[in-house]
Design brief:
Helix 3 (about 45-60) runs antiparallel to helix 4. It is built from eleven helices and no strands. The chain folds into two domains: about 5-125, no CATH class; about 140-210, no CATH class. It has about 220 residues and is mainly alpha-helical. It comes from Nocardiopsis lambiniae. InterPro entries: HD_phosphohydro (IPR009218). This is Metal-dependent phosphohydrolase.
Length: about 220
């Protein structure tokens, strides 16, 4: 969708979630600026919107869908392609801005916890909100092949400061770890509707990255 339409939809989504107080409007404007930073290629307003839409698909499996939505807004609010540090700083940003908006401290801490969970995308079995956030964030893995290829290309562009071989080695490590895990998705919907397609996409990317190298198929 055009950027202006995208921003309008996101602004409306934020106001529906957070309200229209001056503080909420200011925080929403700050988040939109962050997600629209020019160095981003995949973790953009489009990713924010698609992740929020994925939460809508999974909302019945959440304990508090609105808490998950807040976590979506903040989970990549700081994005400098420094895994670990980005999540830590995004969680700290959530604490500061949500407290300023007047959200209860307990809820703010839950949002921050969910943001930090996106370091690993490995929620506990009983963590319904963590499972919904993780699956929504990774839902791109189950996109049609052309969309997945665009995602992989955009991720490479975000890590453009790394030489090709260094990036390739790191990306192969990430893909193999995900493929060797028992499953990628944690919600019932994700496992039924997204798991198989995601594995096909990741195997295809792994093949592109390791062409000429024999790769054992992961366990299913």
């Amino acid at each position: 969708m055009p950027d202006e339409e995208e921003e309008a939809l996101l602004r409306a989504s934020w106001e529906h979630l957070a309200g229209t107080s001056p503080e909420a409007r200011a925080v929403g404007a700050e988040l939109l600026l962050r997600w629209g930073e020019p160095h981003r290629r995949y973790h953009t307003l489009a990713h924010l919107w698609s992740t929020l839409r994925a939460v809508e698909v999974l909302t019945d499996e959440a304990d508090s869908a609105d808490t998950v939505r807040y976590a979506v807004w903040f989970h990549d609010a700081v994005y400098e392609t420094e895994p670990g540090r980005d999540e830590d700083e995004s969680a700290e940003l959530a604490r500061g801005l949500l407290l300023m908006m007047g959200l209860p401290k307990e809820r703010v801490e839950e949002v921050a916890r969910l943001v930090l969970l996106t370091k690993t995308h490995d929620p506990d079995d009983g963590d319904a909100d963590g499972q919904v956030l993780s699956d929504a964030d990774l839902s791109i893995l189950a996109a049609p092949p052309d969309e997945y290829l665009a995602y992989a290309t955009a991720v490479r562009a975000e890590y453009r400061r790394y030489p090709d071989e260094e990036f390739r080695v790191g990306r192969v490590r990430v893909l193999r770890a995900m493929l060797n895990a028992p499953h990628t998705f944690h919600t019932e919907f994700g496992r039924i509707h997204w798991e198989a397609r995601a594995r096909v996409n990741m195997l295809a990317e792994l093949d592109r990255l390791t062409r000429g190298e024999r790769v054992a198929p992961p366990p299913f």
